[in-house]
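Operator note (shift B, R.M.): manual run for EGF-like domain-containing protein requested after the automated queue skipped it. Running by hand, logging everything below so the morning shift can see what happened. Input copied straight from the record, untouched. If output looks odd, do not overwrite the archive copy; leave it for review.
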Amino acid sequence: MDMDAHVFDALGAQTLVDVALTTTVAIPVGGSIRVTFPSGFMVTPTAITSPVGLDAASSLSMIGTVPKITIAATAVAAGTVSFTLNGVNLGVATFPLVPGTYKYTLQGITNPGSSCNQFYDEACVTAWENLVVSTLDVNGNTFQSISVPATPIIKSNLRFARVRTALTTPNTVTSAYVLFNTMTVIPVGGHIVVTFPTGFTLSPAGTVMFNNGINSMSTATISGLTVQVTVASSSVAIQNGVKFTLSGVTTPPLHTSGSYQVQTTDSLNNVLEESVNIGGVGCRFLNDCSGHGDCTLMSSTCTCHPGFGASSDVAEYKAPDCSARKFNKTKRLLMRCDG
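Run finished. Output pasted below as returned.
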């Protein structure tokens, strides 16, 4: 027996199905024709129409989801038989959506970190992967699908961050605390990464104590000058005063200069917030050395740049914050004569 069924292909809509078959044997009165549809179709016919080779008195019933046409009055002779079923729905069980424009809002979406590792929109030319919007039937078969360009995501500056050692004597083993404010949630699996300046030594056996804002199930690893905290159990909420303390820190020589770096990332190491120029004790008291020197990490002094009080400058007075200098008058006259 050959058979063909034509479905009017309006996705998700109730439609008609034309069924045509060629039988090589007669179907007696009381016999039946059954049509089994693939998974995903909602089959609720109420009538058969346009019968050809089939007595109009034949009746329609359902065996589960299978339509059954019972032959009545006159047997079906060998040959071609056709009829139409109504009430067949392509995939949507209840409340089908008619074609049109729809809108809804999803709650609880957390953005990833920066897609471009930049602070400004103008510099952020790399976006994340496109978003895909699809409509599906009850079995996950696609009706329609479209790829929507994603939005580039920039990173943010940490509003506040500080790293301080418990002792400020040079070349001393001590502890250090890291304190910062975050304006972005750090998700479970995300990281807090702190890099110490050259001159420090971090013991690989050092331990981390989570003082505030970080779940105690979180873990830490120490490698070189970097300590990385991996957030576990619960995310780090937006808040002020996130703090942890690291042991096994050896301070650098007294007049060492440099900056600490603190960044937060998502679970794939994409940056959320970052600060790469966190000063030591010197910066705190001397206003970043007036922009003409490097802040010391352990003392309240500045290493001034040449011409602004550097050790190589010949001057009667050198301001400790590199803001002013007074050259030796005799030396200045000699320099002019030599010129």
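Quick read of the result: The mean pLDDT is 84. The radius of gyration is 39 Å.
Leaving this for review. - R.M.
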